[in-house]
């Protein structure tokens, strides 16, 4: 189980396009992937869920990965968050 | 299936500002003082009528609660002369009171508004009687200060039974929900469901305000169940009554056969009936869900099929004759 707190860094926040990309990235892996913010517990493989967060710039989300390929998944997804969803 | 305790959140307090904005229209509450002390916090769901503290008895004064001034309190204050009234009010305004609500359309005396403004304690007024207002407000506060749990799943009202479908991503929860909606049942929320503990032993679930009745279907994308199927296909809230976990058929997993040994799962200390349902070709999960809902209702109304059959078998065993008879004594002349 890997847990990491990340910050949204791009101006537009976690909108539809990045949400779809995150779900696409997460679905490649077998491990479970959850996002936690303000008491919401979101399955990272579901697009509606990720969009529900409506996370704005500067907000913090705790990502958790659990399963066989968790390290690979964590690396790729955390990297995508840190790149500001390729919008910077 | 495990419920992760860390997904449970609980507000410890709400601000008077949030309190006022939430109840002003719902419970016809007006602001009678200046807009002061709106940052004060309400931590307790109960309300308090400060009759004795006004009379000077301050032991066990529940000052941290919302203070309700009903006919009795207001009549008492009016019967005092001006200086006594100021003294009486000042004694209780010295405490850290979140706010006052004056009921029965009573008006505050001028000194009361002045003192409340000076102490930065907001005063609200309501047309409702004290009993009614206390009932409504404590229900509202109970809801706000209750623990909440966010879960991943699809929540549907099937014949009036609140059924939550959980399981791994992509197993087909949304598809089952959609199928149930097609058959005339009502969707509460898909994907993210927030449960709130209401009183003891009741969990109420609803979707999030942002997503409401939107749903994602693999291969189609996002659909809005409300616009597509109309208002009959949705509802905003429902009590959670059964949890169904969908999983790919697993040889090592044990599935209920008789229904005598019903399982439950503890969600925020409430025991909820729980069924693990294997997905195998030829199995119609939608119809099975409907049957489960009907069986739940039958049990609720006092008929448990598994128990009835068990009793019959026990009786048969105790009887001398061990012959297994047809369910009908003899076939009448009906050869159809």
Structural description of this entry:
The complex is a heterodimer of chains A (88) and B (336). Chain A is of the alpha+beta class. Chain A is built from 3 helices and 4 strands; from the N terminus they run βαββαβα. Chain A has helices at 16-27, 47-52, 70-82, and strands at 2-7, 32-37, 40-43, 60-66. In chain A, β2 (32-37) and β3 (40-43) form a beta hairpin. Chain A is globular and about 35 Å long. The model of chain A has no long low-confidence stretch (mean pLDDT 91). The two termini of chain B are 50 Å apart. The mean pLDDT of chain B is 90. In chain B, the strands form 4 sheets. In chain B, strands 1, 9, 10, 11, 12, 15, 16, 17 and 18 form a 9-stranded mixed sheet that branches. Chain B has a 5-stranded mixed sheet with strand order 3-8-7-6-5. Chain B has a two-stranded antiparallel sheet with strand order 2-4. Chain B is of the alpha/beta class. Chain B has 2 domains: 9-144, HprK N-terminal domain-like (Udp-n-acetylmuramoylalanyl-d-glutamate--2,6- Diaminopimelate Ligase, Chain: A, domain 1); 147-308, 3-Layer(aba) Sandwich (Rossmann fold). The radius of gyration of chain B is 28 Å and the shape is elongated. The relative contact order of chain B is 0.11. Helix content of chain B is 30%, strand content 26%. In chain B, α4 packs parallel to α5 (110-118) and α7 crosses α9. Chain B has helices at residues 16-23, 51-54, 71-79, 82-93, 110-118, 130-144, 173-182, 225-229, 285-300, 305-318, and strands spanning 8-9, 14-15, 29-31, 41-42, 47-48, 66-69, 100-102, 123-126, 148-158, 161-166, 186-198, 202-206, 214-217, 221-224, 238-239, 242-248, 263-267, 270-279. Classes of the chains: A alpha+beta (88), B alpha/beta (336). Chains A and B meet through β3 and α2 of A and β1, β9, β11 and β13 of B.
